[in-house]
């Protein structure tokens, strides 16, 4: 422990900071900004749909060595609302749009698919409700059968 402390303070003449293993850190500075999702997307990790217009706290940075006719390109990082997987996208000045990079797929159908999924879940719930009385009846039948059997066994 004390040795490590010394190491932290003493830099030998041939000290090369690039040789120290460290976590990969972004070179340029990042800012936290409040943004809205610029398009519908689907998380690659958990399949969650993220709708255009959903608000996020994002980290914003300059996309290094990238520009379009001298227009700076910005990259944003957000986290999936369900699984917290990082998703990144950047501005696309050429098409006055945004481009998905990592963590999600851009999905024009996201809203429609989400509505369909919601409907399927609703239907499944309704079906379960519909089948529950049957299950209840089944359980009752089984119970009566057992009662009869019990009575029969008591008689003999
Ligand atoms: Zn996710």
TrEMBL record:
Gene Ontology MF terms in the entry: metal ion binding
Main location as per UniProt: nucleus
InterPro entries, sorted: Saf4/Yju2 (IPR007590), Yju2 (IPR043701)
Binding positions for Zn(2+) per the UniProt entry: 43, 46, 80, 83
Record key words, sorted: Metal-binding, mRNA processing, mRNA splicing, Nucleus, Spliceosome, Zinc
Biased composition (Basic and acidic residues): 146-156
Region (Disordered): 113-156
GO cellular component: U2-type catalytic step 1 spliceosome
Places the protein is found: Nucleus
A GO BP entry: generation of catalytic spliceosome for first transesterification step
Assembly and interaction partners: Component of the spliceosome. Present in the activated B complex, the catalytically activated B* complex which catalyzes the branching, the catalytic step 1 C complex catalyzing the exon ligation, and the postcatalytic P complex containing the ligated exons (mRNA) and the excised lariat intron.
Function according to Swiss-Prot or TrEMBL: Part of the spliceosome which catalyzes two sequential transesterification reactions, first the excision of the non-coding intron from pre-mRNA and then the ligation of the coding exons to form the mature mRNA. Plays a role in stabilizing the structure of the spliceosome catalytic core and docking of the branch helix into the active site, producing 5'-exon and lariat intron-3'-intermediates.
Family: Belongs to the CWC16 family. YJU2 subfamily.
Entry protein name: Splicing factor YJU2
Organism, as annotated: Aphis gossypii
Lineage: Eukaryota, Metazoa, Ecdysozoa, Arthropoda, Hexapoda
């Amino acid at each position: 422990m004390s040795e490590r402390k010394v190491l932290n303070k003493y830099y030998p003449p041939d000290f090369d900071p690039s040789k120290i293993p460290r976590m990969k850190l972004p070179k340029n500075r990042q800012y936290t900004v409040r943004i809205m999702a610029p398009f519908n997307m689907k998380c690659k990790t958990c399949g969650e749909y993220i709708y255009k217009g959903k608000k996020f706290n994002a980290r914003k940075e300059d996309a290094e060595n990238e520009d379009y006719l001298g227009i700076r390109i910005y990259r944003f990082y957000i986290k999936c609302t369900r699984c917290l997987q990082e998703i990144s996208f950047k501005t696309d000045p050429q098409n006055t749009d945004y481009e998905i990079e990592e963590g999600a797929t851009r999905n024009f159908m996201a809203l429609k698919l989400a509505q369909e999924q919601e409907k399927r879940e609703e239907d499944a719930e309704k079906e379960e409700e519909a089948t529950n009385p049957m299950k209840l009846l089944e359980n009752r039948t089984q119970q009566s059968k057992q009662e009869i059997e019990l009575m029969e066994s008591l008689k003999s």
